[in-house]
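Field log, afternoon session.

UNIT: design team B
ACTIVITY: writing a sequence onto a fixed backbone
BACKBONE:
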């Protein structure tokens, strides 16, 4: 004997409510743009980027880092700045200090971002002064547009 199921409008509404809850959660409770907040905003390097006619200038705050602790790469127009502070590693592990407050950052920091213009990484320059890394990334020569003349008659094949 066939089994009939009674239609329940409230059950249909529950599915719709679940969908709205997911949208609300993704948009406000745990938005995608807040990923760095959840994953450690304080492990990110603060960046300023300035566009000039012939270059991009990137200034990165890396206080407490030495120039040899910073690694910079540009691959497929993506800039990555990494730093790993060895200061904490050099502190004696035998001593276990009783910190009353500990706010200084140690360990790995990283920032990766897509550059808005194609750069010539071979001619890039990095300067470091007072905890500020300044990268000067010359823009690559633009590919010249090739003009194609439109003919009146089709070419013979």
């Amino acid at each position: 004997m066939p089994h009939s199921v009674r239609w329940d409008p409230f059950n249909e509404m529950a599915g719709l409510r679940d969908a709205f809850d997911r949208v609300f959660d993704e948009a406000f409770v745990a938005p995608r743009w807040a990923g760095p907040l959840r994953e450690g905003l304080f492990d990110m390097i603060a960046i300023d980027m300035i566009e000039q006619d012939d270059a991009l200038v990137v200034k990165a705050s890396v206080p407490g880092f030495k120039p040899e602790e910073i690694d910079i790469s540009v691959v497929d127009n993506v800039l990555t700045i990494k730093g790993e502070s060895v200061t904490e590693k050099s502190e004696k592990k035998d001593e276990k200090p009783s910190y009353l407050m500990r706010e200084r950052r140690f360990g790995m920091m990283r920032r990766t971002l897509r550059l808005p213009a194609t750069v010539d990484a071979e001619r890039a320059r990095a300067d470091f002064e007072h905890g500020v890394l300044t990268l000067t990334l010359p823009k690559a020569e633009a590919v010249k547009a090739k003009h194609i003349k439109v003919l009146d008659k089709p070419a013979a094949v």
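LOG NOTE: The first strand starts at residue 46 and ends at 51.
NEXT ACTIVITY: expression trials, pending approval
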